[in-house]
């Protein structure tokens, strides 16, 4: 398929291909999208396709009003949730929704994930929030749109760029980043953080969260304005 959005389709396809490789979903579960903010469109996985069937040309191009711009297949059923996040969170250009086991366990328990250690703090500045449970009225009005709105409400007073991940109560995780592949990498990090937290509570059910000064140090050294982790770009 010839398209001016070829690079965007390629990015979305590569991100979706990483989801099963990283053990973040089985069957047709999960999805990722890539946004071109200047063009006002994003590419997203088509609904219900097996991961090994995906090709760049399968990716569906959707505008920020939710209208399909290009693509013969129906976009992911979670498209409206991605749309709400792109509208609300400036600075993000990729979203991933996975069904990874340990992160889903926390979502099903309707509990935020405490920051017990520095591995967690390297990824996000504090606990991973969990949304409220969706109400019957919200579900009836528009399930996927309301899910996005629940996420946005859970970030009131919190910088989504400092915490690029959330648990949707009873459902599962959403993550985001400066691109689709970064969003998937955060999904992988979130799954490992969720697993570590479960093991921590198994060792000590009364385990305390990491002190704030240690959380801040680890996050700042990797993501702050004076970050010194990694190599200079």
Characterize the structure shown:
- It contains seven helices and seven strands.
- It has 233 residues and is of the alpha+beta class.
- It has a seven-stranded antiparallel beta sheet with strand order 4-3-2-1-5-7-6, with helices on both faces.
- A hairpin with a 3-residue loop joins β6 (165-168) and β7.
Task: Supply the key terms.
single chain; 233 residues; alpha+beta; L-fuculose-1-phosphate Aldolase; seven-stranded antiparallel sheet; 7 helices; globular
The fraction of residues in strands falls at 5-15%
Radius of gyration: 17 Å
Query: What structural class results from the helix and strand content?
Result: alpha+beta
Please tell me the total number of domains.
Answer: 1
Q: Kindly state the number of beta strands.
A: 7
**Overall geometry:** globular
Q: Indicate the CATH class.
A: Alpha Beta
CATH topology: the name is: L-fuculose-1-phosphate Aldolase
**Widest sheet: strand ordering:** 4-3-2-1-5-7-6
Put simply, the count of helices is: 7
How is this structure best summarized?
By secondary structure, the protein is of the alpha+beta class. It has helices at 6-21, 79-88, 101-109, 118-121, 136-154, 180-203, 212-223, and strands at residues 31-36, 41-44, 60-63, 68-70, 94-97, 165-168, 172-177.
Topology at a glance:
Blueprint: H1 6-21, E1 31-36, E2 41-44, E3 60-63, E4 68-70, H2 79-88, E5 94-97, H3 101-109, H4 118-121, H5 136-154, E6 165-168, E7 172-177, H6 180-203, H7 212-223
Antiparallel strand pairs: 1-2, 1-5, 2-3, 3-4, 5-7, 6-7
Helix pairs in contact: 1-6, 2-5, 3-6
